[in-house]
Amino acid sequence: MIYLDYNATTPCDPRVVEAMLPFFSEFFANPSSLHRPGQEARRAIERARSTIASFLGAKEEEVIFTSGGTESSNLAIRGVAQALRKKGTHLVTSAIEHHAVLNVFRSLEKEGFSVTYLPVDANGIVHPEELKKALRPDTILVSIMHANNETGVLEPIADLARVAHEGGAIFHTDAVQTVGKIPIDVTVLGVDLLSASAHKFYGPKGVGFLYIRKGTPIAPQILGGHHERGKRAGTENVPGIIGMAKACEIAQEEMGEEARRVGALRDMLEQGLEERVPDIHIVSRNVPRLYNTSLVLVAYVEGESLLLNLDFEGICVSSGSACTSSSLEPSHVLLACGYPHELAHGSIRFSLGKWTKEEEIFRVVAVFPKIVEKLRAISPFSKGR
Ligand SMILES: *Cc1c(COP(=O)(O)O)cnc(C)c1O
To answer: 194 alpha carbon to ligand 1 midpoint, in Å?
Structure first.
């Protein structure tokens, strides 16, 4: 199998699994228990919190553990909206967010908030001037993703956060695609809230964190015991948290080298496809984007057919976003960039990672053109070309 879908999820690093194992059956006690094993589990969690905080340039008490990226963004957006409702009811986000963010805003609209969805340019970039125009005296929160999961495009977060703050709003970023891939310092970014998920950077599924700058007003969304300083109730996922901290340590050590190695493979892939397949377009090729991601538009064919044919050859990719790929709706990200429906339907996302090998890229570059040729031969769209 050739796995090129690392933006959907990553395999756990064996070193992460090894770090987690003792916390299932040996150090299993509830970290809220007052006995010694409980306190031992508590100390392990607090060590993990400290590792993650220093990885982000944050304070320990600013890191809250959650069940993943979706929960972190729900807590950030809904939590701030509820806490500041009396101050204002206007919220700002972008048209290209992940559904974990977009659908929270859609539900807040039903609850009486008004939401501005910022447009992006043809490369998928949110411009700070657009944010400036959208801000109102009653704007309480702005949420813009750090890197887009489909295109890999990096948004100018530091500039956007500055504009939001000048307008008196709180700033959240969904950094699920950047944490573990590129260095992140919350002070340099200037954000108030930042969401991350362990399974996107070689940690386990079902665990993530939310960075909450000290003093940021936020209403808890899961109520129960006094866990996570009252911001998120529920017994902590101890093995998951330990694994996530280990994944941060490994990323800190290795991400520089990974960026060089994986970036070279991604460039090789794009060059190979471009040389061998006519009428393809590589999205946002010339703007800052993640080194592991390549979104390719293939004219006259459907992304889903391409995906299934690649799967038959043992090559795992995604068509647009994993969420839209089962609904047959074209990607909202590509539509927001201004691509026509026909082209947006023919998108294939390659996302590379730690275990991607050069031979695998050679094989994709050899197989892909044949599949495209076959599909175009039977495609009604390619008539009269
Ligand atoms: C995967 C992803 C999420 C969701 O994270 P989960 O941990 O799977 O809930 C949110 N935002 C982006 C950009 C993602 O890529």
So the answer is: 12
